[in-house]
Amino acid sequence: MRRILVGVALLAVAVLAGLPVASSTFVHSERHLTIGAHQAVVSPAFDGHATLDFGPLLPKARVDVDAPVGLGVDIRLGDSDAVGLEELLQRDAAIAAQPQGEIREVTAAVTDMAAEAALRGVGVGVLAVTVVVLAWRAVGEDRRRRIRRDAVQPSRGQVAGAVATSVVVVGSLVLVTLPERQDDAPEQTWSSVREVFPQLPADPVLDRLELAQGSATTSSRALVEGALYLYQDSVSFYGALEEQAQQVSVRRPEVGEKTALVVTDRHDNIGMDPVARRIADQAQAELLIDLGDDTSQGGEWENFSINSLAREFDGFDVVAVGGNHDADPTVEQMRKNGFTVLDAEPVEVGGVRFLGETDPRGTKITGYTEDAATRDSALSDQDTALRDVACESDERGERVGVLAVHSWASAKEVAGSGCVDLVLTGHLHYQVGPKAIAGPDGATTTRLTTGSTGGAVLPIALGSSLRRDAQVTLVTFDADGAPVGLQVVTFTPAGVIDVGDYTPLPLTSAPTPAEPDPTEDPTADEEDPEAPVQP
Question: How many CB atoms lie within 10 A of CB 126?
């Protein structure tokens, strides 16, 4: 019993010392994140809302959240590379239509802050207990016996002194660790978005949205209303496309087979992510192959595109390469989300042997960052190096099933070598193939270029609907990881889904040399955005 009482007393000391520190640390914590098109500062709140502060020119917005103990979050949105306020609002509205990836980032940040605060509180509690135990041992049994004897009948002065000392110590700890009160801060008045814009149609998210009242709400009324309509258009178009995707009939794997979904050239169009996921579910796919150009500029603010893809395909094995529009932050975000980013060495994922590498070029919306000769040389060098690796692997009996690169210009020599079974590329924003490419000694390699999954015109796809036809491809593999079939699914700007025929592999048609077609300019996505879909 004595040991139990001692344990309870020490636990009480740890809680009294650690809890105020943990609480104060959590309340004062913040994280710098990239949210949507903004650099942002995220901090916890206790009002049960997620509150977004867009700055002085736009009204604050908040929506209630279902979190324990009234937990909420304040998000202060900062700088963006948008050239104007209207463009920024359009980006925010399109992203808000598919916010799950950003919600997951914010949730992870708040969870991390809570864990860090708890660890700090535990550390202070352990330190307090250690001090008490060491002090207890330092006093010694004889001295404690004399103290107990003298304290059997303590005087009123001793009792008052002990109580006063305890109050001062505990009060000082509370005052030092708890956050400052801000009673002088003016109380914010909030109105439902329905009160401000009563003409908006019903929407489950907008029905919960509130706007702060003030000059920013009044002066930016037209911009905010336009952004809200853009949000609703996006929800309506991609929501209807997602529902239709749940009903399509695609080929499902037979016993011993597995299926992968190919996406490419999404260019920030996260509205297509749940649509692509529904197609993957219908095909019972387990693997995602991302051929790059997930962004338009490779900026850190575009991490929302990778966050969305990772969230939507949670539980999938993901193999990825960066495109010419993806910079280091994009590739790093892929790795952060657990994607297997191919790096010029064969790797087995999901029972399939892959080879590939991120596009060596750097491209912005305004054009390539290198001259044509440098671009062509980089692509040619990459192609030669990948060919050598593929053929060396094939000679060792470790044949590569899929070469995954962004551009066909990085794959011509590999395909012509016959050392891989299937070459998957994007970049052109329209379909080319499937084609059988002739190799030495009668070997063939199948080549397929998938059109832009984001329906991009130029490197821009973010918006309330598709700008042109969008595509995904289903690839079927046998039990040994060899590709045995392809099926292309196309989505039109009119909201129609066209499921192509299933093509068994290897192809039985006459193979063609691994030379570029006259219509296949490596920069076609920038220079010929209206190029037709090729057979």
Answer: 13
Collect contacts of 498-503 with beta carbons under 8 A, ≥24 apart.
499/248, 499/249, 499/250, 502/251, 503/434
Q: Are 192 and 228 in contact (CB under 8 A)?
A: no
Q: Which phi and psi angles does 414 have, rounded to 5°?
A: -65, -45
CA distances from 134 to 8, 131, 137 (A): 17, 5, 5
What percent of the chain has a predicted confidence (pLDDT) above 70? 70
Q: How far apart are CA 249 and CA 173, in angstroms?
A: 65
Cβ atoms 317, 350 nearer than 8 A? yes
> Could you read off the pLDDT of 306-327 as tens digits, one per residue?
988 999 999 999 999 999 999 8
Other CB atoms closer than 10 Å to residue 479's CB: what's the count? 11
| Adjacent-strand bridge partners of 168 | none
Q: How far apart are CA 445 and CA 402, in angstroms?
A: 10
Q: What's the burial of 166, exposed, middle or buried (CB within 10 Å: 0-12/13-18/19+)?
A: exposed
For 184, 320, 370, 406, 462, the CA distances from 294, given in Å and listed in that order, are: 46, 10, 20, 11, 11
Stated as kind and residue range, the H or E segment containing 282 is helix 273-282
Question: Whole-prediction pTM value?
Answer: 0.69
* Length in residues, the chain: 535
Among 108-112, 188-192, 269-273, 289-293, which range has the highest average pLDDT? 289-293
User: If DSSP codes are grouped into helix, strand and coil, which group holds residue 314?
Assistant: coil
Mean pLDDT for the stretch of residues 67-81: 73
| Alpha helices in 67-155, H assignment, sequence order | 85-96, 100-139, 141-150
